[in-house]
Amino acid sequence: MIYIREEIREIEHGKADKENNVLKHAPQAPSVVLADKWERPYTRERAAYPAPWVRQAKF
What we know:
Largest sheet: none
Low-confidence stretches: none
Number of strands: 0
Number of helices: 4
InterPro entries: GDC_P
GO molecular function: glycine binding; glycine dehydrogenase (decarboxylating) activity; pyridoxal phosphate binding
Helix content: 40-55%
Strand content: under 5%
Distance between the termini: 20 Å
Mean pLDDT: 91
Radius of gyration: 12 Å
Oligomer: single chain
């Protein structure tokens, strides 16, 4: 929940686009994260691993 709140705060403070952000697109589909083309304003890594512990528990 802490990471979701941080994502909301980024939108509130204008650091993230209101319509095209990691929160709006969650959950990130594997087909999107693994596609050749990436046109989102945040990194693929952030899309695939929104919190540090997700790297260890990704399934």
